[in-house]
């Protein structure tokens, strides 16, 4: 019987708290999607808010246990009092995804929180990459509070400059730089470097493939070395390997004997010479502009031995 009375009393207290809640206004942070969370007698409730596109700190009036309407934006002092109810954690802004800032712990040794990987930080105001900020954890979300006044903003600025120049993580050196800041830098550097390098390689492959295809050859593979590409390609089913300059695809080593005249060709014209030689048993007629390069008006083209 005593247990039944306790349950009845608990339900009565919850009902009274709900009635007081419906008759009052409350402050809460609203996230994208038009929803806020409130705690009523220890029970967390999620409410839809109007207008549906509201995002930020506001004072709301409940219309029911499931809906609330924005009354006005919250004042800075109100927001600060709300945030001070929760424990402080310092985070490094380490990237954005879908308009949301993601962060790493500024102090890995903080045992109060179990943080794995990047975590979302809600309602960041004018954040910048690598900035150290103060956030408050309400048990489920990290809410932005302010820039960390203890950390020199010049550190974040330095890291952004190094990232823009694509300086390797191991070459980033600045007195006072923390291991956590280095980790945030590396996390941004490698995807950016990869995207830049992959994009460049893609452009170069299209360039080589286009030059060969225009002359009727097919690119098989290429290897990049200093300022030269070693290109493997097929002409009418026969495989050839040539070295060409990166800058203008001029031939450095043709891979066939051209009587020492390799430098007079680029990749595209070299394919033309090879095609003609394959159809004439190795003889290629020299054009008028190059007549002085062959005694009888022909080059004798054959594979290098």
What does this structure look like?
The chain has 305 residues and is α+β, with helices and mostly antiparallel strands. The protein contains five helices and 18 strands. It has helices at 2-22, 76-83, 153-164, 179-214, 267-280, and strands spanning 26-30, 35-40, 43-50, 56-62, 67-73, 88-97, 100-105, 119-122, 132-137, 142-147, 217-225, 228-235, 238-245, 251-253, 256-257, 283-285, 298-300, 302-303. The strands form five sheets. Strands 1-4-5-3-2 form a five-stranded mixed β-sheet. Strands 6-7-8-10-9 form a five-stranded mixed beta barrel. A hairpin with a 5-residue loop joins strand 13 and strand 14. The longest helix has 36 residues, at 179-214. The radius of gyration is 34 Å and the shape is elongated. It starts with a helix and ends with a strand. Residues 282-299 have low confidence and may be disordered.
Q: What's a quick, concise take on this entry?
A:
It is built from five helices and 18 strands.
What spatial form do the alpha-carbon principal axes imply?
Answer: elongated
Helical fraction equals 25-40%
Q: Low-confidence spans: pLDDT under 50, at least 5 residues?
A: 282-299
One letter per element, helices H and strands E, the order comes to HEEEEEHEEEEEHHEEEEEHEEE
| Sheet with most strands | 5 strands, mixed
Strand ordering within the main sheet: 1-4-5-3-2
Between the first and last Cα atoms, what is the distance in angstroms?
A: 104 Å
Mean pLDDT: 84
Strand content: 25-35%
Task: Please provide the count of β strands.
Answer: 18
Radius of gyration: 34 Å
Total count of helical runs of at least 4 residues: 5
Structural class: alpha+beta
């Amino acid at each position: 019987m005593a247990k039944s009375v306790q349950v009845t009393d608990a339900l009565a207290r919850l009902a009274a708290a709900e009635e007081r809640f419906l008759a009052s206004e409350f402050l809460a942070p609203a996230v994208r999607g038009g929803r806020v969370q409130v705690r009523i007698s220890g029970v967390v409730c999620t409410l839809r808010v109007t207008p549906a596109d509201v995002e930020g700190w506001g004072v709301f009036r409940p219309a029911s246990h499931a809906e609330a309407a924005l009354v006005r934006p919250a004042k800075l002092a109100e927001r600060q009092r709300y945030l001070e109810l929760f424990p402080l954690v310092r985070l490094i802004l380490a990237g954005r995804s879908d308009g949301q800032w993601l962060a790493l712990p500024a102090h890995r040794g903080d045992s109060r929180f179990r943080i794995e990987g990047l975590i979302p930080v809600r309602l960041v105001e004018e954040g910048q990459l690598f900035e150290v900020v103060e956030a408050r954890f309400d048990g489920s979300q990290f809410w932005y509070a302010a820039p960390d006044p203890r950390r020199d903003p010049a550190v974040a600025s330095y890291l952004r400059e190094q990232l823009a120049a694509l300086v390797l993580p191991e070459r980033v050196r600045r007195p006072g730089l923390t291991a956590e800041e280095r980790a945030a830098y590396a996390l941004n550097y490698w995807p950016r470097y990869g995207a830049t390098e992959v994009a460049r390689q893609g452009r170069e492959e299209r360039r080589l493939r286009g030059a060969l295809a225009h002359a009727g050859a097919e690119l098989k593979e290429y290897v990049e070395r200093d300022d030269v590409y070693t290109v493997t390609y097929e002409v009418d089913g026969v495989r050839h390997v040539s070295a060409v300059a990166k800058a203008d695809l001029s031939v450095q080593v043709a891979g066939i004997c051209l009587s020492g005249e390799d430098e007079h060709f680029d990749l595209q014209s070299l394919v033309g010479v090879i095609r003609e030689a394959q159809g004439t048993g190795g003889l290629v007629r020299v054009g008028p502009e190059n007549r002085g390069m062959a005694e009888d008006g022909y080059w004798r083209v054959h594979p290098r031995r």
